Structure formats: structure tokens, C-alpha cells
């Protein structure tokens, strides 16, 4: 059982973590999603708690135990996640580990789509870039940590995300590693700051703790 600490580098700080996938419904029985397990984001939430933070975890549908001692909010779609993030935007630290769907169906069929009626194409609309939105709010002193999941040009793409989203750090994940990725218990990440770059490898718990220690002991 985890207990929040009254000391530690994040004592008294509000940390908002997002984790897991989103689901974008086509109709009541079908949706677009991705295989995010929520493990990396949950490990970040746990690490922040251990460092003394008041943690809120906003998560999509996940099948893993959530740490005790934190506030949790469950969401389903990217739009619901965006609304919850706006409601919690006063956080000192935001960790956007959620695998947010970039697209949602342009229209929702409130009844199950029948084969006979289905069109052969699905119209899609882009969702809001939530981390990008936070970056444009310019909340004084807020530290924003994004993630980047890439299959190629890992560091280059992650650097672009760092800049475009006005984030302070990007945790870059390669999907090509042996023991990394959505469902794995382990991960290898490259932590990219505006001036530094460092690699961390291990269980998602270890990686979560080491990443936060690097960020909050270098302040
Ligand atoms: N993100 C977000 N809102 C979205 C999509 C992504 O806040 N609608 C966040 C993710 O939680 C992550 C970061 O942005 O912290 C990067 O997500 P990623 O999917 O790697 O990048 P995208 O900007 O969506 O670009 P692409 O998927 O095209 O690589
Ligand atoms: Ca994306």
C-alpha cells in the first residue's frame, strides 16, 4: 500500500497524470482505440506519489491495479480526457502518458450500425492535441512532461514534439525495442529535455521513478 509522503521533492505539488488509451466510438458497440495498457502512466503516478505529490490520474479503460492514495478519474474518449485535463489544468506538473487517439469518427451512430446500412468508409476528424493546448495556456511555472511513441526517427520526432507542444520534457519510446511498448512490463525510454538527453531502461516502475528523479533533482 502506498502512502503519500509529507516530504520528498514533490511534497505539496499537484501532479496530474494521464494514462491508458482512449476509445472513440463509431456506434454503441464499436470503437477506435490502441493497445495502451496504462502501465507506464500508472508507474509515473506511483513514482510521483512516492516523491510526496498530490496525484490525480485521469485514465482510459485499463485492466491493471491503480495505486492507492491517488485520485483517479476514468474517461473514455479523447474529448472527455480533454475536458478533465482542462478541469485539472492548475497542476504544478502534468505528465501526459495517455495514448490519445488522434482521430475520432466524424459522426456517431446512436444505434448499432447494421451491415446492410454500413458505408465502406469511415470519416474521421482530428481530436484536440491536449498537451499542445496546455502548452499554449502558458500556465506559470507548470512543468509539462509528454510522451512520444515512435516507430522511426525517434529522437528527431521527439524533439519536434518537445518544441511544438511547448513541453519541458519528452519521454520518447521506441516501439521497435525488444522489451518495450504498450503491453510490456519493461521499457526503454529516452528522456529529452531542452538541453539534455538520457536513456533509462528497466521495469516501468524503475523507469518512472528514475525519470522523475532526473527531472526533479535537476531543478
Ligand atoms: N497527445 C495529446 N493529445 C492528442 C494526442 C497526443 O495530448 N490528441 C499527447 C500524448 O499524450 C503524448 C504527446 O502528445 O504526451 C505525443 O503523443 P504522440 O501520439 O506521440 O504524438 P502526436 O503529437 O499525436 O503525433 P503523431 O501521433 O502523429 O506522431
Ligand atoms: Ca498521436
Automatic annotation (TrEMBL):
<comment type="similarity">
    <text>In the N-terminal section; belongs to the HFCD (homo-oligomeric flavin containing Cys decarboxylase) superfamily.</text>
</comment>
<keyword id="KW-0210">Decarboxylase</keyword>
<comment type="function">
    <text>Catalyzes two sequential steps in the biosynthesis of coenzyme A. In the first step cysteine is conjugated to 4'-phosphopantothenate to form 4-phosphopantothenoylcysteine. In the second step the latter compound is decarboxylated to form 4'-phosphopantotheine.</text>
</comment>
<feature type="binding site">
    <location>
        <position position="165"/>
    </location>
    <ligand>
        <name>CTP</name>
    </ligand>
</feature>
<dbReference type="GO" id="GO:0015937">
    <property type="term" value="P:coenzyme A biosynthetic process"/>
</dbReference>
<keyword id="KW-0288">FMN</keyword>
<dbReference type="GO" id="GO:0004632">
    <property type="term" value="F:phosphopantothenate--cysteine ligase activity"/>
</dbReference>
<feature type="binding site">
    <location>
        <position position="147"/>
    </location>
    <ligand>
        <name>CTP</name>
    </ligand>
</feature>
<dbReference type="GO" id="GO:0004633">
    <property type="term" value="F:phosphopantothenoylcysteine decarboxylase activity"/>
</dbReference>
<feature type="binding site">
    <location>
        <position position="161"/>
    </location>
    <ligand>
        <name>CTP</name>
    </ligand>
</feature>
<protein>
    <recommendedName>
        <fullName>Coenzyme A biosynthesis bifunctional protein CoaBC</fullName>
        <ecNumber>4.1.1.36</ecNumber>
        <ecNumber>6.3.2.5</ecNumber>
    </recommendedName>
</protein>
<comment type="similarity">
    <text>In the C-terminal section; belongs to the PPC synthetase family.</text>
</comment>
<feature type="binding site">
    <location>
        <position position="112"/>
    </location>
    <ligand>
        <name>CTP</name>
    </ligand>
</feature>
<keyword id="KW-0436">Ligase</keyword>
<comment type="pathway">
    <text>Cofactor biosynthesis; coenzyme A biosynthesis; CoA from (R)-pantothenate: step 3/5.</text>
</comment>
<keyword id="KW-0460">Magnesium</keyword>
<feature type="binding site">
    <location>
        <position position="102"/>
    </location>
    <ligand>
        <name>CTP</name>
    </ligand>
</feature>
<comment type="pathway">
    <text>Cofactor biosynthesis; coenzyme A biosynthesis; CoA from (R)-pantothenate: step 2/5.</text>
</comment>
<feature type="region of interest" description="Phosphopantothenate--cysteine ligase">
    <location>
        <begin position="15"/>
        <end position="219"/>
    </location>
</feature>
<dbReference type="GO" id="GO:0071513">
    <property type="term" value="C:phosphopantothenoylcysteine decarboxylase complex"/>
</dbReference>
<feature type="domain" description="DNA/pantothenate metabolism flavoprotein C-terminal">
    <location>
        <begin position="10"/>
        <end position="216"/>
    </location>
</feature>
<keyword id="KW-0456">Lyase</keyword>
<keyword id="KW-0479">Metal-binding</keyword>
<dbReference type="GO" id="GO:0010181">
    <property type="term" value="F:FMN binding"/>
</dbReference>
<dbReference type="GO" id="GO:0015941">
    <property type="term" value="P:pantothenate catabolic process"/>
</dbReference>
<dbReference type="GO" id="GO:0046872">
    <property type="term" value="F:metal ion binding"/>
</dbReference>
<keyword id="KW-0511">Multifunctional enzyme</keyword>
<keyword id="KW-0285">Flavoprotein</keyword>
<comment type="function">
    <text>Catalyzes two steps in the biosynthesis of coenzyme A. In the first step cysteine is conjugated to 4'-phosphopantothenate to form 4-phosphopantothenoylcysteine, in the latter compound is decarboxylated to form 4'-phosphopantotheine.</text>
</comment>
Amino acid at each position: 500500500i502506498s502512502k503519500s509522503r509529507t516530504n520528498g521533492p514533490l511534497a505539496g505539488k499537484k501532479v496530474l497524470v494521464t494514462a491508458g488509451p482512449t476509445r472513440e466510438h463509431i456506434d454503441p458497440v464499436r470503437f477506435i482505440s490502441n493497445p495502451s495498457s496504462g502501465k507506464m502512466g500508472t508507474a509515473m503516478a506511483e513514482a510521483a506519489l512516492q516523491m510526496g505529490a498530490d496525484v490525480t490520474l485521469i485514465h482510459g479503460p485499463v485492466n491493471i491495479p491503480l495505486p492507492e492514495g491517488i485520485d483517479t478519474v476514468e474517461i473514455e474518449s479523447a474529448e472527455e480526457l480533454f475536458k478533465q485535463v482542462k478541469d485539472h489544468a492548475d497542476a504544478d506538473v502534468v505528465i501526459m502518458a495517455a495514448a490519445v487517439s488522434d482521430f475520432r469518427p466524424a459522426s456517431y451512430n446512436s444505434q448499432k450500425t447494421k451491415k446492410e446500412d454500413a458505408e465502406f468508409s469511415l470519416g474521421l476528424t482530428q481530436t484536440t492535441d491536449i498537451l499542445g493546448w496546455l502548452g499554449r495556456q502558458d500556465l506559470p511555472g507548470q512543468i509539462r512532461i509528454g510522451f512520444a511513441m515512435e516507430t522511426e526517427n525517434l529522437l528527431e520526432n521527439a524533439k519536434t514534439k518537445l518544441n511544438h507542444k511547448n513541453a519541458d520534457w519528452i519521454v520518447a519510446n521506441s516501439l521497435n525495442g525488444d522489451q518495450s511498448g504498450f503491453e510490456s512490463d519493461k521499457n526503454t525510454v529516452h528522456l529529452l529535455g531542452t538541453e539534455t538527453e538520457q536513456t533509462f531502461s528497466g521495469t516501468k516502475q524503475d523507469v518512472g521513478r528514475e525519470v522523475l528523479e532526473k527531472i526533479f533533482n535537476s531543478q
